[in-house]
Amino acid sequence: MTFAYPHALFLLLLLVPFTILVIYNYRKKRRILSEFIAEPAQAATVVRSGREIDFFKSALLLASFAFLILALARPQWGERFVSMDIRGLEIVFLLDTSASMNAEDLKPSRLEVARNLVAAIVDALRSDMVSQVNFAGAAYVQCPPTLDYEAFKLLALASPVSPPGEQGTDFAKAFTLGLSLFRSSRSSQKVMILVTDGEDQERNWPGAVKELQKQRITVFTVGVGAAGGAPIPIRDRDGRTTGWKKDPQGNIVKSRLDDETLARIAADGGGQYYRLGDAAGIAPMVGILRTYERQQLARKVKSRKIDRFYYPLLLAVLLLAVEMALSDRRIAWRKG
Asked: DSSP character for 249?
């Protein structure tokens, strides 16, 4: 047996002061009665007001109170299986993991803020199917479509910077791979959320966005970075900064947020562009996502415990009724 609200069982501790109060009232009653009627006279005249009935009525009250608390805690045993329809959107996150995302114009880094942003958006969802593609010069699936938000967040927050051999930034590859995750989609509402600093060296994204338009996929873009830009740190295996990325002339390269490109992508993709300073900036996007119509994505069978609260509740009512039916005011005189 389990309880839906086990914390309610702490109310059973109230039985202790209640019991002490019952004992105190009983002794006070006996003391007052003895001042008017001697013990031999009480035994000879009073039947229903004796100590046995007093204790019995008090025990009924205590037991009724205890069963009421048990009913409040909602005891459960046994299981039944319920078929549930899961309705929602399908959302693919495209996370930029290029070296420029190591820039520290947002603390502790752009990539860290971006990862937290993805996790925060998922926390605000309910039953939407989510997946994630990480990309730089190449793209790969970090998390396939899932309804398990906790597993998704573990993978999203563990997204590493792409290795040196995959550096660069190619939005088109991310869009193409993200599109493939919708191939078996049942939903008519599909969303991509591109999280990046906007620096795309390949510039092949217009054709990819046109294909997304044909598939009726809405694209939101989130710009991660400050307007002034920041140098790109070079780090060793232990994550320590050992220098800064430089151009062929030896000048330190600054990575700047490309608002214009991200705004164009969002406009062409039927979504909106957001510049992000921290994870608190997701509220408007989440508000828009919540207005979208949800459609059935899957059906699953879920086991549920069967509530049995009515058993202790019935016992509590019966005990209370018996206590109220008993009276200690009726007096019967014994024949001498």
From this structure: T
Q: Say if residue 92 is exposed, middle or buried (CB neighbours under 10 Å; 0-12, 13-18, 19+).
A: buried
User: What whole-number distance in Å separates Cα of residue 20 and Cα of residue 32?
Assistant: 18
DSSP H/E element including 129: strand 129-135
Structural domain range at position 11: 2-74+309-325
User: For the chain, how many structural domains are there in total?
Assistant: 2
Q: Residues 232, 204: contact at Cβ < 8 Å?
A: no
What the block records as the tokens of 48 is 């229903």
CB atoms within 10 A of CB 179: 18
Residue 334 domain flag: no
Instruction: Give 18-69 pLDDT, tens digit per residue.
Output: 888 878 877 777 777 676 666 666 555 544 445 566 678 888 888 999 999 9
95 and 213 both lie in a single domain: yes
pTM: 0.65
Q: Are residues 205 and 114 in the same domain?
A: yes
Residues 62 and 104 in one domain: no
Nearest to 196 by CA among 295, 273, 293, 86: 273
Query: 206 preceded by cis ω (within 30°)?
Result: no
